[in-house]
Model the fold of this input.
Amino acid sequence: MKLSRYFLPTLKETPSDAQIASHRLMLRAGLIRQSAAGIYTWLPLGLRVLKNIETIVREEQGKAGAVELLMPTLQSADLWRESGRYDDYGAEMLRIKDRGDRDLLYGPTNEELITDIFRGSVKSYKDLPLNLYHIQWKFRDEIRPRFGVMRGREFLMKDAYSFDLDREGARRAYNKMFAAYLRTFDRMGLKAIPMAADTGPIGGDMSHEFLILAETGESEVFCHRTLLDLPAPPDGLDYDSDLSAIVDERTALYAATDEMHDQSAFEAQVAEADRISARGIEVGHIFFFGTKYSEAMGATVQGPEGKLIPVEMGSYGIGVSRLAGALIEANHDKDGIIWPASVAPFDVGLVNLKPGDAATSAKCDDLYEQLKTAGIEVLCDDTDERAGAKFSRMDLIGLPHQLIVGPRGLEKNTVELKDRRTGERQELSPEAAINFLTSQKERA
Amino acid sequence: MKLSRYFLPTLKETPSDAQIASHRLMLRAGLIRQSAAGIYTWLPLGLRVLKNIETIVREEQGKAGAVELLMPTLQSADLWRESGRYDDYGAEMLRIKDRGDRDLLYGPTNEELITDIFRGSVKSYKDLPLNLYHIQWKFRDEIRPRFGVMRGREFLMKDAYSFDLDREGARRAYNKMFAAYLRTFDRMGLKAIPMAADTGPIGGDMSHEFLILAETGESEVFCHRTLLDLPAPPDGLDYDSDLSAIVDERTALYAATDEMHDQSAFEAQVAEADRISARGIEVGHIFFFGTKYSEAMGATVQGPEGKLIPVEMGSYGIGVSRLAGALIEANHDKDGIIWPASVAPFDVGLVNLKPGDAATSAKCDDLYEQLKTAGIEVLCDDTDERAGAKFSRMDLIGLPHQLIVGPRGLEKNTVELKDRRTGERQELSPEAAINFLTSQKERA
Done:
């Protein structure tokens, strides 16, 4: 993409109402723009990040056997009356009347709707296990939307729903998502720690939140240091195998948010040197709630002996739009964002230091085409702004690599390659730069 | 994908309330399921089609220079008060009050919101031309939602918005979208005919609808026969070149929907043998409306002489979810859907005629892996249903090819390959079948 034909409205000043780094940087780097309180437009650069996050989530859900569908944003209130949640849910649910005076709502979550789809289609235990998910916009009418996309009102969530014949099967489904979540966050370069959690309005018997540590996190978290060191399950994990060791290894160690924290248990179970007290951002939440919805809504299957059995269910959420903010909280410096390669909006920023110079522009065009041919996503700054402004903008938007091309370097057949994270710069030939970037891309 | 692990709830019976073929077939083939009046869940197979349509739309928008962002579904009513449309829009607009009693609405279109984004970011004519688009769910509170996704309430639309300094620039922007639309629909195997159109609630000076001919179309259309024969612009079209010949060639020929039809002009301009009277389905609509929104909302740029100039705008819509229905109206027979290869949910259906037979299953697994390795999307029917049910289902869901594997064929090292559109079947070796399907995929 050539910047002269792109839409990247960066801000020079820091917006005064943005309290945390990710909110400030998302506004300044032209990733998002507020449209109403807690409601954002994803500008082109931000949308590319959002799509990359989505893709990782989708790939890992697929590997774990979850099947994607897409439920609508608006739901009929009648379904929520069946489960009893329509009255329980409170003011965070956006309630709507259509022109025929029928009650609709903007889905804050989808247990009722997916249960309705299930009961209308699945009749036999032979069709189980089943895990259905979607990635769709949700709405929660927060009384004080803040922190940008971290606590917005309209937000993008991945929510999966598992259906099993018995508790043992449901536990396997839960373990699959548990492992998939570890892999998902790991691919984004995040260390997410599962913590026993309160089940809140979803309800149920067992629940874990996945939190990443960050100073600006909304929760206080307490955990065993070893949880920071455990590696994520490997690519190629066999999801049909017994995954309980992956779950047990982690859940055996103390980890809790302030809501669930028990200081005396923490001190009894964890040696002082291993105690971590920090702040965390919730990026995922999984629930096992058994037959809560299937019994209320009549979602039964015929079991092996012919009897109708209400299915055992769980639900599994990832905050897709929130992750864009969380990733910045975990990856930034005073100059701007530092995207992990797996979610970066472009792989490399190509900076033309002198667009007026024919030789420099020709070399930039050549490099641009070579990079594209190699499957490397490139944003070329071909504007006529001064070099300093270009450097600042590239640092601000945080692409992993910058390839800087100017007439002085080209005289000795060199370009400059900058690593955004380390700040390291090297002069090398254009060919060597392309080779290096290609090898980086192939490794990813 | 193995069918035993997928979610494909097909229906045996034809739903009684579905009046047109696409609605019936989308329900029967397990593509969609109604969640509320005019509001649908896209089941896994339907979602794959929707994503394929989206991808074609996105690619062609990108080639034409439009830049993707993503506006939210809910908008503030205040913006619509600025343009004057909040009161004008009528009962089709879904109006919402949030918990703070502020007026929101579910966007039926986005002229106001994009104009707000533009005026907040773009200040100089040097940043023009600009074309911004998104693919997002919209809501129109139809009084009688019907025909499934063809006239639903919650629907997916691609809407692009162009900004230019003057009318000449705006005309170039209009022509780019005109050409891109011809290419977009052509890639889906659809012959879309541009027709002079009424501008309706969007307003403006010039407008074309793109219609495909189908018996169940909601509009009566009248056009010159030659319009059916003109080829779409080629891949690799230079969008920076003068595209007016592409537009003029088409707009010079008579084409109008009933709303704009003038029978005497039709008869005067078109020889009787060249007159087509048919029914059509609108799949796209483009508008040039000049400064209607930019003046009302103060979207100005500094011109070359330093004066503030309200920008000239157009908007360009494609009914993405509606296209899924339109494609079926144009591609089905008595047995079911016949997907064009470019939008098919899978390229091939692999039918295991005897999953109980170890050799047959091993060969199916082998073919399945080979197809996946070749980049061919395959749905393998590995269920233990009888062969007849499997054949009917494959015909119903309409994948372009069926690869049928059974023990009798394997004894002589053959499988059967069926072309869904022609019905043609051939017996050939498994290797030859893979080669054929690979060559088909490469051609696409």
The CA atoms of residues 69 and 104 of chain B lie 21 Å apart. Chain B touches chain A through 51 residues (CB under 8 Å). The two ends of chain B are 21 Å apart (CA to CA).
